[in-house]
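Convert to structure. Protein one:
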Amino acid sequence: MTRCAVVGAGAWGTALADLLARNGHETVLWAYEADVTESVRTARVNTRFLPGATLSAALEVSCDLAGALAGASLVCLATPSQHLRAILRQGAGALAPGAVVCVASKGIERDTLALMSDVAASEARGHPVVALSGPSFAAEVAARQPTAIVAASDDMAAAELVQDLFSNGLFRVYTHDDVTGVELGGSLKNVMAVATGICEGAGFGFNSRAALITRGLAEMTRLGIAVGARPATFAGLAGIGDLVLTCTGSLSRNRAVGIEVGKGATLDEALAGKETVAEGVTTTRSALALAEREGVEMPIVSMVHRVLFDGLAAHAGVTELMSRELRAEQDA
């Protein structure tokens, strides 16, 4: 039995904590919200973020960050990406010597344009860092439906530890050493899901969605190569796998926000009343800034940015994509 801590009790963090507990590991889930702690402790369900999923009786829950981290050999971070640095900075002193830090948050930090594994490495110096990504809706993981994801690290022993702790007969974890590619795939697919939602909400059909997904993958790969990722990574679970899931699945928060915006809602209206985070909204700003820094053309990301933040009408944004200069498919 391994002591594990999961930091962040949103849908994904809760599902991962439940998975670890059901795998027989001593697991504590840290929640920022007191009502979530109470709900999990008394009713064995996270009614706020993962309703309908009965959680393992063995799963502990706490609002005490230092207490949750104490003695944990694995610390899994599943906070919203823009809060990860502050929360990890607050708890870094409580990390056990040699603890592996597993980053399940997906995003690009707004100010620094750092990937989440880089944020973790800078705030938890001396600890091996593993990025966890791939096609996985929290509700389906909690329902114990077959799922496959990727654990990526420069430290293969750390990646294999994460693989071993999370894997079971219904949850399969592959290891990978292209941390940048795995992380970037997991971050950018959220922006592409917003794009496909906008397209759908504006009344476009399956042809349009297929084009956006395929060209979105080309954009993701292009930026990945520019920052040192391997192109083949984007053909795997953390690339095309997660991209297809998030762009087509009815459980996708990012797609749902895009659909509302595509139908004419403002971004504030589309986000109103939603407990869960649509990371693609924040990542759109970061992704565009990173692309501009690297001199990489990302027309779909640019379109999403203009629709979300600059008032461009959804239908006009999609039409502009179709009106771009003609070129060879492998050229751009």
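Protein two, convert as well:
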Amino acid sequence: MKKNSKIFPEDFLWGGATAANQWEGAWQEGGKGLCVADINEFMGDLPPEERNNHNFTSEQVQALLDSKTKYFPKRFGIDFYHNYKEDIALLAGLGIKSIRTSINWARIYPNGDDEKPNEEGLKFYDDVFDEMRKYGLEPLITISHYEIPLNICLKYSGWYNRKTIDMFVKYCETIFKRYKDKVKYWILINQINTFAVETFNHLGIPSDHVDNLEEAIYQGLHHELVASAKAMKIGREINPEFKFGEMSSYHNCYAASGTSENALVALKHNQLQYYFSDVEVRGEIPSYMYRFYEEKGFNIEITDQDREDLKETVDFVSFSFYGTSNIDASGKEQRNICGEANAWGWTMDPVGLRVALNEYYDRYQKPLIVAENGMGFHEKLDESGQLHDPYRIDFYRSHIKQVKEAIYDGVEIWGYYPWGPIDIVSCSSSEMEKRYGFIYVDYDNYHNGTGKRILKDSYAWYKKAVESNGEDLK
């Protein structure tokens, strides 16, 4: 009788995940153009319900660009642009096998519709990938991670415009040709299903450019799926060894209680989360979406050529995992209280990660990558300049154990990537002091500080976990 493995594969991709817009900085250097992240204002002093980094009119975008008083942390990040050699060396010191980051689209095509790419931007990523390879690190590269050029948003209405498909495919062809011998693993669109709270960051659609923003969002998402499929076809012609992945954020909900009504609402909610991976794995639009569009009164343009293009499918499925929620028959969602919450109300649910891995694998029978998993904390150095973070060690110990359990369940998993292995600017709140890393970076929310990198206690712990291939988690 066949027995499932109880240990991590020898070639398992232990890694760490970041994004260009959250760590690079140098927002006006190297020929880079403006991207959506460059107008993500720091609003950490406001309560969450008063923050808005995600939904803008074109007038609001212009006001942010013109502002002399507002602060935009992602413009500065942790200055990886100038410190990439030091940072990659520190990450390599963890013993990891891979780094996930993104290419900032606006570094390659500053306006998105440029005739020729920006050579200085291309050269920067050449240097970054060469530095990774020097340490034997496999790049896992996200092509679009909330970094769409701002010009595409204002001039073309972002992904709502079908012309953006061609601009994205041109961008992809450029980087595929340039890095065909340096990058093997590609994620097309970061968290493609995260559009409710990342509408503008993700799709770049100014709300005053469209009559029905919700309908426009789904049209834009359809264009992203078509663009991704067309890009994969070109990529495989350039290098048949490329491996392409879909990436979602695990936003599935459990039914709040054991009624059929709650179960049905949870099912319909989860289908909308699976929509994107269903298309990118199975190569066609799932039938449940047509009822959804009809009931919403949406008129989504889907051509026969789109349906043909969508037949190009991914090699693996990846996802981010930050916890679980439940939903009742009224559609009300609530975070599952599975452990102590952090300062932002996020709770730890390691068994939920095992559930997610089994759900995705049962549905697709494709290799999986946990592309993000982490939890942010407020942290300060002690009097001796050290940072002790047993809570982070507890977090990763409990989640890695559940990844191992999923492997024993029979799930094929290629890699595990803690989010923010080095402190970077938070995606959702654009603050520096929501810290995820094994490495402390001495900047505050306003970029005050020395920028010094300091190893936390969790650094040595993760190094031991990686070097033991997940066996030593003490």
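The mean pLDDT is 95. The chain has one domain: 13-467.
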